[in-house]
């Protein structure tokens, strides 16, 4: 294992975030605060408690998930797309490192960034609402697994994309709608029965539900189903990544 | 192709030159590459690179130079064939193989917002070497980059960026350095500096393989020259031997009085008249001329005597040898 290479890529990627601190940190914190002002204070004051939890607190896990998914995908996809775009990827491909090590470096950094971000949003939310996390261990598990899984997805998108448009396509057309419709801001019990059934086909529902359960002990679907869904996501992403590396797809012609 | 076969076998050449053959630092055998588009970039290439030499790979655009380098360095997968880098297979034992190679790519690619120091340090880490600031300092100083170490790459000129790429390639102390068109777009002064750097590297035992469009560069630096065209190695030869064998020499005599035609007494020489008969040109193969101990060509002194005897007086003379560029152009043209 070329650990020095993994560390080098990891540090390089983390430093990139450091250089763009405003974009990678301040902007998500600001947008989270805006969500709290709009959903928590303005709308939330008119919505009754959801399953015994104040609406402001109820949306915290959903909000963190929303940021976690979008930031993981965008961080990881950009991290590998950019060197491909500028051509600096040649150095990584000519270095004595395995594919696994490349993934550990890039995906590890992207996941770390989103986890840090998730924790910052969690911290920010305590300024607005009272929070008590019932299952902290499971909360961290969901946080880490989701960050890793969606960073892998981002990595795949970054390799697949051959232009900036494609890079934005999946996050914009798939991730964001699925997250918004995935019960980030509402309990799916609030929906009519037909839409409840449709919503269950949205994988993000399981992530948000499981994550919310770790906070409040309430969930739309069972925690086991949520964990299984994360595991399936992770397995599929890993399978695709290993296929990419086996065939050299868009990296090693 | 067949008549060239003996000439393209570098191993046989080195055997005759050195008796026992040291193992090549890079051994390429039957290497082929066919891209998905169906384009055959390399057609079963065999090539050995000797330890410690400067090898220049020449060829027109699209000949397969970059593909060959890319396969050796691990950027492109070969369709068939094998590459051994210091005895390590570059696919099955890629870690050992790649660790020995430094690559300076043709394109000026860089992480615009990184500093020179950080980007070179990153390269060393990527190759799994423990951090060594003194080595990086040496590399940066040898490339006149030390003063610029805190500059972001975006602030550097093209020539300086090229040096940074060389510094990155040298960060992990490679035994073999690939320079893909190292001086493309670099001004004359910087080009000479870079040649100096390459010579110093060679002196320190690094094997250097460079591709170039500037024949002048190969002529100036290379120990051996390989010509690649349409995915095939057309020729591999010692530079001196190549220039001697393929180089045409020309003797030009500026006459005191113009001639209407070449006198019959001189008709057995390949002489031509130019510039309305005021210039007499004699073309010959440098290699085929028997030379005396002093290196003078016997037939030239004889020719000059015969010209004297024929009563022709000349006011000036000069000889010129065809450059590698002429040789190269002729070679590629012959095969097209």
Architecture overview:
The complex is a heterodimer of chains A (253) and B (336). Chain A is an all-alpha fold. Chain A is 76% helix and 0% strand. Chain B is built from 12 helices and 14 strands. A 6-stranded mixed beta sheet of chain B has the order 6-7-8-3-9-10, with helices on both faces. In chain B, helix 5 (116-126) packs parallel to helix 7 (158-170). Chain B is elongated. The interface between A and B is medium-sized, with 27 and 32 residues. Chain A: Belongs to the ABC-2 integral membrane protein family. Chain A: InterPro entries: ABC-2_transport_permease, ABC2_TM, ABC2_TM_bact-type, ABC_2_transport. Chain A: This is Transport permease protein.
Gist of the model:
The complex is a heterodimer of chains A (253) and B (336). Chain A is mainly alpha-helical and 253 residues long.
What portion of residues of chain B belong to β-strands? 25-35%
**Level-2 CATH architecture of the largest domain in chain B:** 3-Layer(aba) Sandwich
Strand tally of chain B:
14
| CATH-derived topology of the largest domain in chain B | Rossmann fold
Number of domains of chain A: 1
Give a quick account of the main beta sheet of chain B: strands, pairing sense, barrel closure.
Answer: 6 strands, mixed
CATH class of the largest domain in chain B: Alpha Beta
Distance between the termini of chain B: 12 Å
Give unreliable regions of chain B as ranges: 1-19
**Contiguous helical run count of chain A:** 10
Assembly status: heterodimer
Structural class of chain A: mainly alpha
Coarse morphology of chain B: elongated
> What would you call the shape of chain A?
globular
Low-confidence stretches of chain A: none
Q: How many E-type strands of chain A?
A: 0
Structural class, from helix and strand content of chain B? alpha/beta
Helix content of chain A: over 70%
InterPro entries (chain B): AAA+_ATPase, ABC_transporter-like_ATP-bd, ABC_transporter-like_CS, ABC_transporter_ATP-binding, P-loop_NTPase
Protein name (chain B): ABC transporter ATP-binding protein
GO molecular function, one term (chain B): ATP binding
Keywords (chain B): ATP-binding, Nucleotide-binding, Transport
């Amino acid at each position: 294992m070329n650990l020095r290479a993994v560390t080098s890529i990891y540090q390089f990627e983390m430093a990139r975030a450091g250089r763009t601190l405003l974009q990678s940190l301040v902007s998500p914190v600001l947008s989270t605060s805006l969500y709290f002002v709009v959903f928590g204070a303005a709308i939330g004051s008119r919505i009754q408690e959801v399953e015994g939890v104040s609406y402001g607190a109820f949306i915290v896990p959903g909000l963190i998930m929303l940021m976690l998914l979008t930031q993981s995908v965008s961080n990881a996809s950009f991290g590998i797309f950019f060197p491909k775009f500028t051509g600096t990827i040649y150095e990584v491909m000519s270095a004595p490192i395995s594919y696994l090590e490349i993934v550990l470096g890039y995906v590890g950094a992207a996941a770390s960034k989103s986890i840090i971000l998730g924790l910052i949003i969690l911290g920010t939310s305590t300024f607005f609402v009272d929070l008590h996390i019932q299952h902290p261990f499971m909360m961290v598990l969901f946080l880490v697994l989701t960050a890793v899984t969606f960073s892998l997805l981002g990595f795949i998108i970054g390799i697949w994309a051959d232009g900036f448009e494609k890079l934005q396509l999946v996050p914009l057309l798939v991730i964001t709608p699925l997250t918004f419709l995935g019960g980030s801001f509402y309990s799916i019990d609030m929906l009519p029965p037909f839409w409840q059934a449709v919503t269950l086909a949205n994988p993000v529902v399981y992530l948000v539900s499981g994550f919310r359960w770790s906070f409040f002990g309430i969930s739309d679907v069972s925690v086991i189903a949520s964990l299984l869904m994360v595991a399936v996501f992770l397995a599929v992403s890993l399978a695709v990544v290993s296929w990419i590396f086996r065939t050299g797809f868009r990296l090693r012609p | 192709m067949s008549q060239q076969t003996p000439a393209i076998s570098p191993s046989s050449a080195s055997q005759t030159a050195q008796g026992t053959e040291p193992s090549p630092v890079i051994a390429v055998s039957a290497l082929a590459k066919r891209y998905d588009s169906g384009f055959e970039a390399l057609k079963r290439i065999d090539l050995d690179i000797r330890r410690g030499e400067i090898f220049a790979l020449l060829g027109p655009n699209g000949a397969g130079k970059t593909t060959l380098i890319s396969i050796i360095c691990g950027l492109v997968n070969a369709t068939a064939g094998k590459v051994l880098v210091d005895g390590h297979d570059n696919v099955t034992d890629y870690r050992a193989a790649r660790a020995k190679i430094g690559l300076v790519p043709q394109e000026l690619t860089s992480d615009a917002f990184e500093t020179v120091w950080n980007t070179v340090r990153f390269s060393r880490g990527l190759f799994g070497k423990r951090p060594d600031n003194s080595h990086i300092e040496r590399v940066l100083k040898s490339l006149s980059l030390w003063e610029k170490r805190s500059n972001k790459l975006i602030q550097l000129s093209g020539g300086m960026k090229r040096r940074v790429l060389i510094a990155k390639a040298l960060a992990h102390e490679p035994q073999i350095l690939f320079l893909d068109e190292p001086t493309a777009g670099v001004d004359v002064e910087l080009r000479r500096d870079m040649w100096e750097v390459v010579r110093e590297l060679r002196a320190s035992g690094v094997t250097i393989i460079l591709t170039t469009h500037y024949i002048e560069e190969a002529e100036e630096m290379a120990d051996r020259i390989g010509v690649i065209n349409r995915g095939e190695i057309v020729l591999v030869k010692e530079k001196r031997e190549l220039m001697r064998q393929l180089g045409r020499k020309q003797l030009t005599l500026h006459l005191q009085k113009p001639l209407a035609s070449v006198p019959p007494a001189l008709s057995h020489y390949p002489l031509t008249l130019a510039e309305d008969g005021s210039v007499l040109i004699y073309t010959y193969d440098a290699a085929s001329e028997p030379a005396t101990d002093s290196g003078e060509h016997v037939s030239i002194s004889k020719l000059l005597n015969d010209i004297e005897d024929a009563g022709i007086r000349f006011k000036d003379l000069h000889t010129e040898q065809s450059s590698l560029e002429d040789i190269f152009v002729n070679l590629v043209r012959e095969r097209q």
